Amino acid sequence: MNYDALLMEATRHDVIVFEKKMTPRIKGLYADKVIFINKDQSEVAKACVIAEEIAHYHTSSGNILDQSNIQNRKQELRARQWAYQCMIPLDRIVQAHHARISGRYDLAEFLGVTEDFLQAAIDRYTEKYGLSVKADDNHIVLFDPLGVVELI
Most exposed: 11, 25, 112, 123, by fewest CB within 10 Å? Predict the structure, then answer.
């Protein structure tokens, strides 16, 4: 999903999104159906951030800023996983394969995500599925090295 589609997704859930200048360290925040996005980012980076902040709307409760608390870390992980599945579902990796996309930069561009977000998603998928997962009846997505195997 691109940034505009994610803005519409937030609106569908009555979540208000504000872009404002924030310290560079903070990319976005969610609280009480309000998302703040650091406006000093590219559209692609904003899309990755808003996906995660919308995920907090769907998966988190309370103040989870203290990441030394294991329950807060679990909520953060759930939100990130939701964002990865939103922005980089396995079928989109298969579509990229069929479009003959090669290389992480080109894949990130095809998917509309940053390279860092792509790598974090791949790392999370590897933790969840291992080195590969069957995406559908005809494809296996490999995570290391990243690729797609077509089953014939």
Answer: 25
